[in-house]
Amino acid sequence: MVQSTCPNVLSHGTCTDSSCQYAHNVFNCTLCALVFANQLDYTKHLSSKAHRNKTSGETGLLLFCSICEKYVSGMKNWQGHASGSKHASAAKAKGLSPDVPPEEPEDVPGHQLCVVCNRHIPSRFWARHPLQPQHKEREQFLKFTSAVEETEKDKNGVTILGEFDFNIVEPEDAASGVVRSGTIQCQVPGTRIALLDMRLASSQGRRTYSPFTISWASNVPNLITSRSSISFAVRMTQAQFGRAEDRLEFLFEDVRLRSRFIITRSLLVTVGSRADHEMLRPKVPYVPRKRTTRHPETNVVEGIAPPSTLAIPYVGKLTIAPIPPNLFNTLSSGSTKEIIARLQRMYLPPVLNSETYSKHFKHLLWTEEFQMERDLEYYDINDAPLSRYGQFYYVSVPGLAEKRPSVLVGDRILVHPRDSRPGDWFSGGVHLVRKEEVGLKFHRSFVASPSDRFLVRFKLNRFPMRRQHQALDTAFSQDRVLFPTDLHLPKTIPRRIAPPTLRWYNPLIANNPPQKQAVLSIAFREPGSMPFIIFGPPGTGKTVTMVEAILQVLATNPTSRILACAPSNSAADLITARLASAHLKPSELFRAYAPSRNKDDVPTSVASYTHQTRDGHFSVPPMLRMMGFRVIVTTCVSASITSGIGMPRGHFSHIFVDEAGQATEPEVMIGIKSLADSSTNVILSGDPKQLGPIIRSSVARVLGLETSYIERLMNREIYDEVKGYGRSVVKLVKNFRSHNAILKFPNERFYRGDLECCGDPKIINFYVDSQHVARKNFPIVFQSISGKDDREASSPSFFNIDEVTTIKTLVQRLRSDRTLRITDNDIGIIAPYHAQVLKLRTALRSVADAVKVGSVEEFQGQERRVILISTVRSSRDFVKYDLKHTLGFVANPRRFNVAVTRAQALLYIVGDPSVLSLDPLWRAFLNYIHQNGGWKGPSPTWDTSAAVDDNAKYDADVRNAAQDDMNEFTRMIEAMTLGGVQALEEDDDGDIDHNVDRPWNEVE
């Protein structure tokens, strides 16, 4: 096992702790300013994207493929080349492994290497390359880093002694102040040095906040000789958690030579919990994974599928719909931009209409499937043992409880014996799924001993994709459903007043005009109408409205039959439970589950509305009973059960889809295109301003697969919230969840200011006058903190220990409040990165174990009295990183909207404002909080009263300001004849990991 590298060596290049037990022999990459604990990690880094792919402008660093004997531009293109079929064929023809490392040639014909940019420049561009802005910026940054490093050296006989890295300081000590002493000495006899100035860099340029102050004795002489020295002190005082840094600058003059010079010292501190940092710190530095070519499975011995796969009596065969070979090759190589261009040119129809609808979405599905299969490579397990108990072999799967990867009964997992031929695999059917392991059943020829080791490969469950393809292949393609226009608007005016015979199942709806109008528009809608949309912003009761509409359709139309769908099992269970509470009998209401569903996950209130085989697997009753149900509830994907067992098209008079914004359009179409006829009415409920479907392929997202069916319809003019009110759409406006201060910003930003605060005053006003808010009657707090985002060696997902400690402390304060008592279940914690979620859970285990911590996706549709948000990202190297890299998932309007609208009484955000303010949406929100007195910690570094430009490049502004400060310092040093060139650190993200924090869809 490799010994962990000393943190001091990694941070500062040296370690003065004589008792340090870490490894100190490191491998240094001067180009990237990184050090590695061993040669293996260093070698990996040399092949990483960060080291090689510094491409921009005319071309990038050229790599040479020794198999194909050709040059490839940049590591990203190399990955596409190395995983392509032509490369594999060339390797096979030469009898070589395709997994060869790229070679970095010193000389490339027709090119010259720019050592500043580390790029091969075509000779025809060489003359103008030094004039390019990016080359000039790189030169300037190299000069700056060289100048800073030069000033950190003692010189001209002057030595500055003292330890100015305060390391981790506990909060109580930091609040009272911590002092470090320093001494300035001159060791050359006869030399007289004058100290002209001693200052902090934060007092110059644009930096405003620093917890450091400097002082020295009042009678200290400004002359330093070999017989005299100067003592000074640096005091650090900080009341909040987080990190701070500054630079202490000493300006000297050699009196005899009349020459001036500067010596600097870095000041660093982390205010936080030493215990938390020790418990949560990364054990080994993160190194991006290199994507390797997967050897194809040429000989697979199929295992035994579980009995549940036969629980549904399907009629007919499900289409296979494999990815066409030519399309697979198109998706296998090139940049995202190039692949999109090829798809649009060669495969996608130029116009999306009823005739081209199926072709368009089938290709988007294949594109998404291609990426999903590639993302599963991340979970390959090397050297895995198999343990046998009874008839099953068990394999441990890290992250299984988190559905990373998601494994269900009926899936297939492949295992490759370590010493067998590359293409030989055994497929195991998944029979059992436990918390951390799965039980597999292989072919009888499979035998494994406890000492055997296997390569484990997870295979994509293609059944959901195949069901979508089968639905897209159907003949149903009516414009009134797929592409409605003014011609499809109802001819009659929507009913505004309920008939006297109508009985409201939920009396509150009768006093809520938008909900009431939505129910009447649906219940008295003519058969064969265009789809109707219940537009339900956060906390407005869209599911309640949809359930009421279902009940009224049943009451007003005795012959009606309803299929109700939702993207997830939890949402479908909620619909079933609410319909059951309205006294629908098991003979009227049926909840159809996929056979893979775990019975322990089924709510008690729903169990009596299901059907199971004698073996205990979820199934469906005989067709006669199925035809008799008034309402059948399924997930969108499992809607294929009804058509798959032979229920006729047109059987359902209405198809309802709740939370329709979270499903892809092909998923919603499983029920609609398979079962609707010319008389079927379609009703959608959702909010396209909140999170959409989970799409893993950036290509498919750009081409529209992330746009849900409900969002695509609402982008059409006839679904305007005002013009179409009551005929095509009703917008619910009464918010029953949040305090008005919490609701105000997202209301104005996303919902035209239409939402009305109607929450229970006892709940939403719970914290308005408490110690937990910064200003009375404003229950939003932003805790400004400068932390550090880290990554473990095992995962590219980010975490921030400083924010973990802050969140933990906040939870302790909330739970220990004896005046305003709450439980763990009243608190929700949202973090955008999976690693941060895990770190928070670890830190809270001994404090408040029942507090829910999860991603934004896990909180959609939920609410808590208190919501704490950890934004995680705190990279301050604006010169090197662009906005997308710095903010990542945080800079997503829909994620933002969902995150800030979950709180009922208190919203508490912890983050680095210097980073968050780069995004216009976050900058506007931070302005709103600051102007209303909800700010804690260091003040904003920008004018919060200035108007925010949604199209502004605030990251460019910050980089330019940082560039000016660097240039000013560099010019000052150059004036003192200092110079030199060092290197610039680059983005170290690897492409193989870019989807690691994107959750997986619920699969059935």
From TrEMBL:
UniProt keyword list: ATP-binding, Cytoplasm, Helicase, Hydrolase, Metal-binding, Nucleotide-binding, RNA-binding, RNA-mediated gene silencing, Zinc, Zinc-finger
Species annotation: Lentinula raphanica
A GO MF label: zinc ion binding
UniProt protein name: RNA helicase
Main subcellular localisation: cytoplasm
Pfam families recorded: AAA_11, AAA_12, MOV-10_beta-barrel, zf-C2H2_jaz, zf-met
Known catalytic reactions: ATP + H2O = ADP + phosphate + H(+)
Composition bias, Basic and acidic residues: 992-1004
Gene3D superfamilies xrefs: P-loop containing nucleotide triphosphate hydrolases
Lineage: Eukaryota, Fungi, Dikarya, Basidiomycota, Agaricomycotina
Residue stretches making up the C2H2-type domain: 29-51
